[in-house]
Amino acid sequence: MTTRDKILSLLRGPVVARIRFTFPFNAGTVTIAPASFHRVADALETGKISLQVTNTFPPGVGGQYTSGTPNLLQVAPLIGRTEEGLLLHECTHAVFDLTKTQVTDNEDEAAAYVVDALYFRMTGLRRPRWDAEPHATAGGVADALLRDYQSGKTGLPAVNAAAWRALRTEIALHSVYRWGTSGVLGVLLGASTGHDG
Ligand SMILES: [Zn+2]
Fold first, then answer.
1. How many angstroms separate the alpha carbon of residue 172 from the centre of ligand 1?
2. Which terminal CB of the chain, N or C, has fewer other CB atoms within 10 Å?
3. Contact in structure between 164 and 173 (CB atoms under 8 Å)
4. Rounded to the nearest whole angstrom, what is the distance from the C-alpha of residue 189 to the centroid of ligand 1?
5. Superkingdom of this entry's organism (predicted)?
6. The pLDDT value given to residue 175
7. Is the bond into 128 cis (omega within 30 degrees of 0)?
8. Ligand 1: distance of its center to the CA of 120 in Å?
9. Which residues are found with C-beta within 5 Å of the ion, ligand 1?
10. Could you tell me the distance, in angstroms and rounded to a whole number, from the CA of residue 90 to the centre of ligand 1?
11. What backbone phi and psi angles, to 5 degrees, belong to 18?
């Protein structure tokens, strides 16, 4: 299976099918749901997003999404759950770009960290593997959402307000990614995570 096919399968697969939450923003409420990621898969297929699989990222960088014509998703090869989670992080940036959702950079980044933390939790990736910030704090938001999922509540759970605030603060404190001057929405510089089966 090519990396491209793996990415499409992941975006349309059973784990992503469980990811759903809302968060408040300036213009109301933002929803992240499986359809958000299906839209990214469609954009990859139609060429609205071009994909570049590359080994040229510095250590610890999982990927990069750049808004443009076409949009560009650059990812490291999908070796395991760590890389898959980081890919979904970048795809969350793509969601906001494709939908022209006017979230702030901080909200954009926070939502992306929640998505990767949800993926790590749902696939049972041990916490020491993703304890670098802001992933760890995003884990608190993910934990609360998973409790909602498991309680049998249907519908879209909102992020826990306190956990979300803590995550946004953590992101504001971090300077590990750079912002927007060239349309770069976010460059993820997590801890080097090694390989994962
Ligand atoms: Zn990011």
1. 12
2. C
3. no
4. 9
5. Bacteria
6. 55
7. no
8. 16
9. 109, 112, 186, 188
10. 6
11. -95, -10
